[in-house]
Amino acid sequence: MAADILLTHSNNLYSDRKQVRKMQPYPPLQTLIAAARLRECGYTVAVHDVTLAASPDEGFQSALKTHRPGLVAVVEDNFNFLTKMCLMRNRELAFRMCSAARDAGIPAVVNGSDSTDHATAYLGAGFEMVLVGEVESGLENVARQVLHGDDLGLSGKVAPIAPVSDLDSLPDAEWDLVDMEAYRAAWIAAHGTFSLNMTSSRGCPYRCNWCAKPVFGSSY
């Protein structure tokens, strides 16, 4: 089924043996909220969720062929501490996704903690733009430019995005875009219960020295 925009992320559970042992996978909440905002704006959206994918590269290439999107957006789950650990395997997967999109003639943009901290590396890997900050409005603007044929002005840019001032203006996550039963089965098999992630705030006023906070900074 064709889609205007294909969203994905690079946090594959099986690339981290410690996370495999813990087996506490959560859907990519930020990615799904971004998808919901794009749907509100009238775009058709698909999500390639790599969290539990045995072969994320093959799955992504298949998603490109299935959905034939006009834009690829690698949007990390900024509410998941694992995406703030600057894991090299996450970055490498994001770069491979970008390469596959470019080979298919599809522009790709990225948002997340690691891309914010290492924007030059991501632009060098072929991403058209690094979206810095809370992704919803920035991604909406990029989609409008790319899909409506406006002057892109995207290539090789870092685009700062103003914080969302009214969280109630954001839609609920589009849970239907991921295989929720796969998450349920993983949790039940490992723990006998099922856990799901939600958030009612953004940012954090504290300054723990272990925590990377490039997306929200110290705002709350």
Task: Put the structure in a nutshell.
With 220 residues, the protein is an alpha/beta fold. The protein contains 8 helices and 6 strands, in the order βααβαβαβααβαβα. The chain is 37% helix and 11% strand.
In the predicted model, the low-confidence regions spanning at least 5 consecutive residues are: none
Given helix and strand content, the structural type is alpha/beta
**Pattern of helices and strands:** EHHEHEHEHHEHEH
Tell me roughly what share of residues is in helical segments: 25-40%
The number of E-state strands comes to 6
What do the pLDDT scores average to? 91
Q: What is the terminal-to-terminal distance?
A: 39 Å
Largest sheet: 6 strands, parallel
| Fraction in beta strands | 5-15%
Total helices: the number is: 8
Mass-distribution shape = globular
Largest sheet, order of strands side by side? 2-1-3-4-5-6
Overall description:
By secondary structure, the chain is of the alpha/beta class. 37% of the residues lie in helices and 11% in strands. The chain has a six-stranded parallel beta sheet with strand order 2-1-3-4-5-6, with helices on both faces. Helix 7 links the parallel strand 5 (129-132) and strand 6. Helix 2 (29-40) crosses helix 7 and helix 3 (56-67) packs parallel to helix 4 (88-103).
Write the layout of secondary structure elements.
Layout: E1 5-8, H1 17-22, H2 29-40, E2 45-48, H3 56-67, E3 71-75, H4 88-103, E4 108-111, H5 113-117, H6 119-124, E5 129-132, H7 135-147, E6 157-160, H8 180-191
Parallel strand pairs: 1-2, 1-3, 3-4, 4-5, 5-6
